[in-house]
Amino acid sequence: MPITLSPMTPPDAPAQTALMNAAFGPDLMSVFYPTGCPPDAAAHMTAVNVKTIQKAAAHPDELLFVKAVEADGQVVATAKWEIHARQRTEAELDREDEEGHRDPPPGANAEAMGAFFGELGRKRREIFGGEPYMLLSILVVHPGHQRKGLGAMLLEDGLRRADELGLRAYLESSPKGKGLYAKWGFEEVGVMDFDAREWGREENVVHTLMIRPARK
């Protein structure tokens, strides 16, 4: 069945919530929602997705939010890229960190979420400071549609924009995605070893920090 790429729209927000829960449920979502994601949390996540989609439409120079859609209209994969095309000050970085930790979803383990995303933010600042780069903050493929080239399609689309801007691209990869990213030129620059045992998991959640050098 043919797949097309197009910008996310507000009606796609529930599909994004469902994708995140389906793809990340066995790992991070089980840490953030140890008793399962309740309906009011899903509604909260969908509302956040709507705002993000609207921002991407209003500020395409700052945010790309793209979907892969089957011929029947089903959203089967998405990618969100944050475009930091200019130098940012420490005050701007502090403000972004603060905004990222506001208003956790109902029923979420706010402490676990704060620890995880706080560590992600610290790693990014250690690597880039306020320097320009593009961040692949989300690449999600529905479990029933994996290994069909959807991730590669979305990567190619976003990296084309990075090349147009001459920006380095950065992401934090799960062990499952590392091989794909390496094929697209991403190189390992570090590891984030998140100790999730405090929140009920039997092992840590490990992400490889990867950069694709800028290309013209």
TrEMBL record:
<protein>
    <recommendedName>
        <fullName>N-acetyltransferase domain-containing protein</fullName>
    </recommendedName>
</protein>
<feature type="compositionally biased region" description="Basic and acidic residues">
    <location>
        <begin position="88"/>
        <end position="104"/>
    </location>
</feature>
<dbReference type="GO" id="GO:0016747">
    <property type="term" value="F:acyltransferase activity, transferring groups other than amino-acyl groups"/>
</dbReference>
<dbReference type="Pfam" id="PF00583">
    <property type="entry name" value="Acetyltransf_1"/>
</dbReference>
<feature type="region of interest" description="Disordered">
    <location>
        <begin position="88"/>
        <end position="110"/>
    </location>
</feature>
<dbReference type="InterPro" id="IPR000182">
    <property type="entry name" value="GNAT_dom"/>
</dbReference>
<dbReference type="InterPro" id="IPR052523">
    <property type="entry name" value="Trichothecene_AcTrans"/>
</dbReference>
<dbReference type="InterPro" id="IPR016181">
    <property type="entry name" value="Acyl_CoA_acyltransferase"/>
</dbReference>
<feature type="domain" description="N-acetyltransferase">
    <location>
        <begin position="3"/>
        <end position="215"/>
    </location>
</feature>
